[in-house]
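Memo to structure team: turn this sequence into structure tokens by end of day. - J.P.
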Amino acid sequence: MFHGARGLVFSLVACGGPKVSPEAPAAAPVPSAVASGPAVRFAPLPAMPPQALARLTQPVAVPEVTIDGVAHPIRYTVLRRTGEEGFGQLHDRDMTPLSDDHALCNEQDFNSILTVEGQPFLVSHFECTPGAMTVSPLDIADDGTLSIRRSIPVDWASVGGLWNPCAGQLSPWNTHLGSEEYEPDARAEPTEDQYWPHRAWTGMQRFDPEGVDPYAYGWIPEVRITDAEGHHTVVKHLAPGRASHEIAYVLPDQRTVYLSDDGAAVGWYLFVADTPGDLSAGHLYAARFEQQGDTFGIGWIPLGHASDEELRPHLERGLSFDELFQVEEPTDGACAEGFAFVRHPYGEECLKLAEPSEAVPDPALLASRFEKRRYAGLMGASLELVKGEGVSYDPVRGRVYLAVSKLDETMSDDQGQVSLPPNGCGVVYGGPTAKGVVDTQGHPIPSDHVMTALEPDVVGRPTADGAACEADSIANPDNITFMPGLRRLIIAEDTAKHPNAKLWAASVDDPSAPLQAIMVAPPYAEFTGLHWIGHVGGHGWLTVTVQHPWSEGTDELPEGIHPEDTRTFTGVLGPFPEG
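Reply from structure team:
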């Protein structure tokens, strides 16, 4: 159930990216009272007995949505499956296709649909190391049906390759904004007993056998299509800082950016760009929470101002961890004088900034970006969220949403600022935004859209034994997106706590309305790549990826399920009315 806003506000009194004109549109003002949106009813999912769901090999979607009494047929259209015409093929630094057992990435994640000079394109990225991305011109049929013409691989060699790109956004200025999740630890190369870090590191060595620079990864990649032929440019933005970003989500003012951090003992970040539509310079902040029951007030700790231009030379020369921090191991959670205890996904450390040097005269500046999470912890930020996932925004209410996959570990251990009862089904938090907010040092934050609290809006409900989640409730929310015309928050699951992952629609205007399941996936799949694209060919679309069906969580395929059934689905749900 959607619990709605509680209205609590935590008061604090104390290289050249793309350019846009100063007249870029600002976020919509937040009215004092928000009228309810249209009457919306999704048709139920087709009835399927449990044995049919247990053998499902295709995603299933609702056939219709009724808006203010008018029925609109909708469907899930598959645009590509991994392996089709090289979709998901990985390449090395020279753009030579890899040919080993893991040369095809079946983890297709985010897709944006953007139009340049009248030509729509699907930009797709693949969540592997090395990562991959394609630009695909789209054809639009008379009935609005979308289809892929061909897929053009994107070359990331100029910025050191692409690392495990996860969620993303069609930016307000019509570019593809991605992310690089689970950034490598720059303090130590992973060992074989560290399963995923070692697998990702050795996977990246296929891109460049000469070596992996951990500081090359964990940033915000951006692709701009420059003409109707699909030519494009790429950049990685350093100014918002390096972490395990699930997503960097830009608000409609084109300056305010919220960055989630995926993993255990992670943070929540705010970046305010100097110039609308340009993420190459700005101010960075990290959240410190003040718990009040199940709600958290937010104080924003300033991490300083930085630009890609001043950071990139240090990346190119080969920055080392020791130039940023001194480290000691804690003793019973305590640190020697001058060191601060910091807990993060790599473990527990006692940290203090390194002494200035000729190469790094300002260690704080570089640490704030190259080691954003560690530096945030050093400055007193809360590093306690567990799997901060998707982010979205309601421009009418001025409300930011953050999905947290589950409440356990650092969110439930009675340490730090956060201590909640465990909930293995997760929560989607919402937070009001305000103008005139100051940071924890009393300085104004240069944005009119600063979150002041996290409030549990959509809460998963565990079963009595805690082993699963109730069938009518969310289970491990991941990607989220907002449909402003329908006033619906769409929530994707990445879960083993439902037999089949679901895609949910939640009303933000009627707290009593039950969630509506609008898609169901084959077993062992997750919904990802979720984004609302409001204007393509006279229609609106939800991009929806159904990732790795039948191939994650099972050792062998059941009888009658074939290898081709494991290929990821890349597609769209719609068409919806524009808006």
